[in-house]
Amino acid sequence: MAKIPPGILAWSALLLVKSTVRHETKLFASLLALLTVLTAGAEAQSEEKLFSPDKSYSVEIVRNTENFLLLSKGGKPIAKVPTQVGPQGSFFQTLWSPDGRYVAINKQRSSRTGGDEMWIVALPSGKVLRQPDDALWNELDEKASAYIDEKHLWEVGGKEFLTLTATGWGKGGLRFRLEAWFGEMEVRYFFDGTVEPLHLETIADWKVSKAKP
Description:
Number of domains: 1
Number of helices: 3
Strand content: 35-45%
Number of strands: 13
């Protein structure tokens, strides 16, 4: 059997190495392209989506360079509400009016519960009728503070914390609860009332109660 010169063996080995490198490079490029396709748009993925009872509407949390609540009808967006949306898994709830005209949205906006967490949106227009830290919040804060001052609760309870959320729909409109708790007291106070979405300046059925958590 004829011997193959060492130079030819070396050249063949070099060609084999080059071929292997090119194959692995192409394989890596293909995997990278597939990964790019699979992760495209990942920065704008929805965290959670809640549907109306008839599944025609949905509200979802979207985290992107801009965080927002997205209201859709039949899968088509009708309202985008920019807001802080809190950490993943934080409190998120929708309450749909029986007549299908409104949706109340409760959403924790920071890393801890507290503050104004309630929106009211008209359907099907998607018009935001009420959002956190508006005139309603200011009025409820004043009413709660007046009660707290009257009962001298801050003297024994220390620093106070307030949270506003919607609790359900009734004949008079949307029921809400302003919850007050204190840094040095176990008892929590609840300020409940009702508002009509188109007449938020009028607070009805106002009552105060208390309970231990």
